[in-house]
Amino acid sequence: MAQILPSVFGANLLRLQDEIQFLENEQTEILHVDLMDGTYVSNIAFGPNQIAAMKKASTMTFDVHMMLANPERHIDDVIKTGAEMISVHYESTPHVHFILQKIKKAGRKAGVVLNPGTPESVLEYLLDDIDYILIMTINPGQPGQTFIEKSIEKIKNTKKMIAGRNIKIEVDGGVNIDIAKKVKQAGADLIVVGGALFNDTPQESYRALKSAIQ
Ligand code: DX5
Ligand code: ZN
User: Under a CB-based contact definition with an 8 Å cutoff, are residues 17 and 8 in contact?
Assistant: First the structure.
């Protein structure tokens, strides 16, 4: 069954506690949390201290999406936040396997993120080490971008590649109600939504998104 993962990057930070409470009231299981360093991507968001503080104020599972140069320098701090799911960009380091090992040794779920230009085939020798593949459906770093249509083909091909393995497919970027349906149909299990959820009518939007993928 596919799930919507709200992206806290899209929330109103002046009312963060209320936003977390709203998501909990709506029975959210997994919160997507972006970690951006201003180098690997141009934006800056949520360091380990902020993530740990949010985690303490919540019962949701945290899915940390690391957009960092040198993730090997920060992975221990990210693990310390308590996040249950942690993903690393394939393109961000020559040491993806090392980082995946660290995440798994800490007992967390490990994901690899692929930018729009990176083929899923790079994961061939990592398939036994990952719990999920995060397919970027925009270029990482900025909210409010348009979904890249080519991603549908990539989701389908990724689904074929993982075959019977217990690996989930996550998508992130530019998802609205119509796109949520399309990515689900293509094989996505975890569907991240920022702007199309945290708008003027978040409750209505969230419920509509969830019912669209039932
Ligand atoms: C962007 C982030 C996303 C972002 C998605 O780099 O990784 O999680 O919050 O926002 P929307 O859904 O508005 O594209
Ligand atoms: Zn993200």
Answer: no
